């Protein structure tokens, strides 16, 4: 181990515990302590303390050897310096320990601030840094600042800067949380707004559906009338039309109305199930009339609905009993005697006002005190019923008068027809015969119009059927089959008549044919005794009169069959990419069309079917018309008015092969421009 001078700062040489040379160890210890007494670290202080202990031990051993007469190996002056050197070591160690304590305290403070402000610790932080709370020194930055002459922050300034940085991080984090909360609130408001819009759309859809269903109420009545499946509301609908518009504007052939003199009697005879169904339909008719602005018609249906609901409530076990006294103990005939004989709604309203006055002034003294309060209350409750009954019965009477006039006019027509038939038969058989002597068969066999009129008369005034009896007879399987066969035969005959009319139109001569026939007819043959006569007799073999051909349907004018498709999709241009996404896509647009039209029976197969565009009255559309020639008629489609892409690589195809015209095309993409 070599000795070192006091001016240098040699590193401490290793110490061998077996051999403790005195002078070199002491020299090294003293040189080390003198070189850096103030810049010692904790490890240096510990090592110096160990060296000091070794030196003291060696000093004791040397001292013992001196007492035994041995010669000392080192000067005693170095040993004398050991206490002062040890004091400097202790002071350095204490200063280092205090700085360590301060650093540990600052680290603890930083850790507490980070944990309190940000919630970060060495064990738990989003950066995965186990030394997050320790001080980080950016040495390169310090070197650059030192080279640039910038004084680095130290002490309290550095701590203030660190605290400011921490506050800035806290503020940034707070702003981020506020922004996240704001985005969440906006998303919630957006979802609520979309939900409200969907609810509004759903309510609008329900309202439109209900309005459409109400508007179809009159159409349903018309369909039931045409199919002879009338219900109560259908008969009342016909009565309303007859009473308000007359028979001239009556749109139906059947004038059958209710047979009873009072509508309330008919309503009372219906079962509860039919009354409930009629109430729903009558309510639709009332709302439909109000939507169309027909107040009188709506009031009529309101009165009918009130009567039907009263009868339904009376016949339903769960409903209240129909009693004019409202449970006050007054008999029905008492109110009927007061209000039943009144035939005017105005008089009824006057009676209602008078009853209200009597009920109001019952305590004022005078004649009003002698009136039965229960009877007045019951009568007031029944006034709307009698007003509704008067309104409905008035329409019923007016309709019956119209029907009676129709029946009377039909009777007059029948008498005239009978007289004409009788006169013609008497003129042919016996001139002295009178219409009364004419037998009945001559009347029915003369013309079918009498049967039609009499049948119509029977339809107007049907014979009532007693309850418990049925005019229907069971139909056997043979009768059903024969009826179906007869129906098929009539349908076939109807189509045969159409075919014959089509053939007759096809046999009409054109102008050129007529000219040629006229020239041939006027041509004279001057060949002596040879003459020419018309020869237009056709030979029809037995069985050929009703002969048909397989190609008749093949060349009948008709529309071609087709199956077409329209291509729609999203156009993800720059604008749509900016304002839409996959969850909320942009509106779909038409991308192209595929037309496939069949022409298998073209007469002239050499002529290719053509297509051309025409102007459309609707903005943004055009008419695409296809023409092929006989026997096919032209067909046209309304498509979007956009520029076609005729490039085959883009899917354009216009081919006619094997009797099929294929026209496939796509539209050019719209380039988005700012």
Can you characterise this structure?
- The structure is a single chain.
- With 674 residues, the chain is of the alpha+beta class.
- Among the domains are: 22-117; 216-417, no CATH class; 565-667, no CATH class.
- The protein is 55% helix and 7% strand.
- It is built from 18 helices and 8 strands.
- It has helices at 22-35, 42-67, 76-117, 139-148, 156-215, 217-226, 232-245, 263-268, 272-291, 295-315, 332-339, 345-360, 373-428, 440-446, 448-460, 477-506, 511-522, 574-579; strands at 565-569, 589-598, 610-615, 621-627, 635-640, 644-645, 653-657, 660-667.
- The strands form 2 sheets. Strands 1, 2, 6, 7 and 8 form a 5-stranded antiparallel sheet that branches.
- Helix 9 (272-291) packs antiparallel against helix 10.
- The radius of gyration is 59 Å and the shape is elongated.
- One of its GO terms (biological process) is mRNA cis splicing, via spliceosome.
- This is Splicing factor Cactin.
- Pfam families: Cactin_mid (PF10312), CactinC_cactus (PF09732).
- One of its GO terms (cellular component) is cytoplasm.
- Residues 551-674 form the Splicing factor Cactin C-terminal domain.
